[in-house]
Amino acid sequence: MALRFFNTYSRKVEDFHARDDRKVDMYTCGPTVYSRAHIGNFRAYIFEDLLQRHLEARGFEVHRVMNITDVDDKTIRGAREAKVPLERFTQQFKDAFFDDAEKLRIKRADEYPSATDQRYVDKMIAMISALISKGLAYQADDKSVYYRIKKFPNYGKLAHFNLDELQSTGRVKHDEYDKEHIGDFALWKAWDEDDGDVKWNSPWGPGRPGWHIECSAMATAILGDQIDIHCGGVDNIFPHHEAEIAQSEGVTGKKFVNYWLHCAHLLVDGQKMAKSLGNFYTVPDVIAKGYTGHEIRYALMRVHYRTQLNFTWDGMKEARESLGRIDDWLERLRELAVENGRDAALRRPRTSQRNVPTQFEDALDDDLNISAALGFLFETIRETNRAMDENKLDAKQAGAWLSWWERINATLDFESAETELPGEVKQLAEARMQARLAKDFRKSDELRDKLNALGWEARDTKDGQKITRRAGAK
Ligand code: AMP
Ligand code: ZN
Q: Distance between CA atoms of 200 and 71, rounded to whole angstroms?
């Protein structure tokens, strides 16, 4: 099956053709660093990670850019309230974002441009000047510069509405009477007292860029006038991405993005997880409940990106159980592969795989159908476990399944790493290892029971103690 994605622009599933045979340019809207990102935001980044890794699995070289929005109303307000310079205020949340993304094993983008970087501010100013000279933007009485949406014939094509609707439904509050049309959005916001010392000089006086022009400028400065894929959450479609199209195409006259991909929201009790609703969890919040980063990764990835996903603690338990099944399966396969005197897993070169199924990748080709892909994985686990129970799997076959796993795990990145054990578990495991070295087996058994009670199992193998999740553990 050809690789295909649902394109928000056409509202159709389309075959994917990169502009270059083997390279894909991808732009993803990153965090606004006024507070720690919540796991709803991370659902979007996990979906983008899956997309990137699957494209790579299909042989594309992906060049991904993720911007950091480090100047806007919320960051300025936050810095003012904290009484620290904007840069210091945003830095702590940039650091937190990278920490959390690493815990969730999200591949790093190639570039993380910041909106406040003078290089990009210059590009924003150049783009706004070009828009003014084409009659697509104007400076209003309040000294701010606005985009003249009526002059851009395609405005509304991405979100699928027409301009008159925008006026009649009153979906944008008409409280900025300097504007020609209620839907005109700010490209350059004139400085006012609340902005303090956050300002840049421009041909229109001191001020700062609007959020939308930041992304148009950073995307085109780094990736060029045209890009293959642009992603974000569905709340980015309007006005943010609609505005990006109007700005970028308004300046270049070329089609800005070939495929627009948007993920549905992470919900809590049926409502969008959002800062403003106060119903959010951060990555450290979930880790504090005893879960690991890769369990969060699993919980956020397991549902198709265009389906809403409800966050629940039961969902986290299920993630733990599913990953536990994978770990147990791998352990059995590895034991079998090594037991028979030939470490088939290590010896088999990846290229020699024949007869290994492709259903996993085929499912992902179909607009990233992760449910079908994981369904196939768990079916395979069930079948190979049964074959092992019946002694019908030999070392070579176990090795082939291990290489298959290695291949699909390059996309999933689901395998447990001991460094990820929750703090308390790590301490108990360490104490148990010491007890065994001291031959204090009573203590070692007590510690094993404690680990069990927390849902973990300690096994003593020839390579030392192994800590894994207990199958069916809460
Ligand atoms: P923001 O920091 O608000 O600009 O959001 C960063 C990214 O997270 C954007 O792509 C949003 O669309 C996305 N996002 C925000 N809330 C959610 C949510 N509850 N579920 C999924 N994605 C979200
Ligand atoms: Zn953006």
A: 11
106, 235, 282, 296: residue to mutate for ligand 1 pocket, most atoms within 8 A of CB: 235
Distance between Cα 192 and ligand 1 center (Å): 28
Model pTM score: 0.88
Q: Does ligand 1 lie within 6 Å of residue 241's CB atom?
A: no
Q: How far apart are CA 35 and CA 298, in angstroms?
A: 24
Question: What CA–CA distance (Å, rounded) separates 229 from 65?
Answer: 11
Q: Report d(CA 388, CA 395) in Å as an integer.
A: 10
The phi and psi torsions of 409 (rounded to 5 degrees) equal -70, -15
Name the closest ligand to CA 235: 1
Residue-wise pLDDT tens for the chain (474 aa)? 799 999 999 999 999 999 998 999 999 999 999 999 999 999 999 999 999 999 999 999 999 999 999 999 999 999 999 999 999 999 999 999 999 999 999 999 999 999 999 999 999 999 999 999 999 999 999 999 999 999 999 999 999 988 777 665 444 444 456 799 989 999 999 999 999 999 999 999 999 999 999 999 999 999 999 999 999 999 999 999 999 999 999 999 999 999 999 999 999 988 999 988 999 999 999 999 999 999 999 999 999 999 999 999 999 999 999 999 999 999 999 999 986 654 444 554 444 445 679 999 999 999 999 999 999 999 999 999 999 999 999 999 999 999 999 999 999 999 988 656 777 888 899 899 899 889 999 999 999 999 988 888 888 876 678 787 765 554
For residue 232, the ligand 1 atom closest to its alpha carbon is 10
